[in-house]
Write a structure and sequence with these properties.
alpha/beta; Arc Repressor Mutant, subunit A; Rossmann fold; seven-stranded mixed sheet; two-stranded antiparallel ribbon; 15 helices; about 20% strand; globular; binds S-adenosylmethionine
Length: about 325
């Protein structure tokens, strides 16, 4: 209900109106959102209960905490959109999600959205359909990337290879932090095309010059350049464990001697410690694919990687950040 109340307040323009004023009288709230007094009051009371506004006899004002949260408005709206998309699946199919992931996947709307098999041939329909999910992944990565990259020393990273790098948002953030890094983003053809559009829209010319997109199907094509830093960001959880380990082995093979591999992935959900919120719905549907760090660390260790470090990064759920160096 908190999500619904916040989404309605955003959609009805109430949040914008409140953000630009210290306080609004209740009758002005009602006319601003085009609601009868009872509807406006219900919304204001709910928002007060959720700490979004303070409702006083004189009127309604945004709380300081929500004003601070509004700095991340784009992220807030994105998480609402993603959760709204996933909840119908959870409501209709939760027993399948718990008991039979193939049956859940076959019936769910969300897995029908992330159709990588429709990203192999570039045409208007494929671009349109991939745009719907790459907007979500790009938006999440915009806000998740700083939490990982703040802990990674990018000094000495000449070439960066981002495997399953989507629209290049992660690579862009690497290049913004490291002025001498050149990035190669590897992804499926349709996604690379959307990535070029994303760069044209969001990157400075000098940044876009350092980011190139390379189309490859990582199930079959590993004719890729080597790099000083190779990353898998939110990629391995898309694959069954044996395939994910195979991908990781191959990705590790792209690291130059002395270079590093970086894995940034959601950790298994800890549903006792974290109160499960509405916004966590998209994490829940990957329940079966979120693995302990050891699943990847053991592989890197067996490949002879050294200085293996694992950090826990707390976002809406815990993420693993794993860094390891290929011996010279
Ligand atoms: C969950 S998304 C994560 C994207 C990005 N790393 C991020 O964190 O925003 C997984 C990415 O893997 C890509 N992918 C899936 N199957 C692939 C394949 N066979 N070859 C190359 N890329 C693939 C998808 O197109 C998508 O961009």
């Amino acid at each position: 209900m908190a999500a619904r109340a916040i989404a309605a307040a955003l959609q009805l323009g109430l949040i914008d109106r409140l953000a630009s004023t210290a306080e609004m009288a209740m009758e002005n709230v009602a006319s601003a959102i085009g609601a009868p007094a009872v509807g406006a009051h219900a919304l204001a009371e709910l928002l007060d209960g959720y700490g979004v506004v303070r409702l006083r006899p004189s009127g309604v004002s945004l709380t300081e905490r929500f004003r601070e949260a509004l700095e991340f408005r784009e992220y807030l709206e994105l998480r609402l959109r993603f959760a709204d998309l996933v909840w119908p699946d959870i409501q209709a199919l939760f027993p399948f999600l718990l008991c039979s992931i193939p049956e859940f996947m076959a019936r769910s709307r969300v897995f029908d959205l992330f159709r990588y098999d429709r990203c192999l041939t570039v045409n208007a329909e494929a671009l349109q359909s991939a745009r719907r999910w790459t907007e979500l992944t790009t938006g999440l990565t915009r806000y998740e990337a700083p939490a990982a990259l703040g802990r990674v020393d990018l000094g000495g990273v000449g070439d960066f290879l981002d495997l399953g790098g989507n629209t290049g948002e992660f690579a862009l953030q690497v290049c913004r932090r490291s002025a001498t890094t050149r990035a190669t983003v590897v992804d499926l053809p349709v996604v690379c095309e959307l990535g070029r559009e994303h760069m044209a829209r969001t990157a400075a010319a000098e940044e876009a010059d350092r980011i190139r997109f390379l189309t490859a199907d990582l199930r079959t094509n590993w004719a890729l350049p080597q790099a000083d830093l190779v990353s898998f960001k939110s990629v391995l959880h898309d694959w069954p464990e044996a395939d994910a380990i195979d991908l990781l082995r191959r990705g590790a093979g792209q690291v130059r001697p002395g270079g590093r591999i970086m894995i940034f992935e959601r950790a298994p959900l800890d549903l006792c410690r974290h109160r499960f919120t509405y916004a966590m719905a998209p994490d829940l549907v990957f329940l079966h694919f979120l693995r302990p760090a050891a699943a990847y660390v053991d592989t890197l260790s067996a490949l002879g990687f050294q200085s293996i470090e694992t950090f826990t990064v707390e976002l809406e759920v815990d993420f693993h950040l794993i860094l390891a160096t290929r011996p010279i």
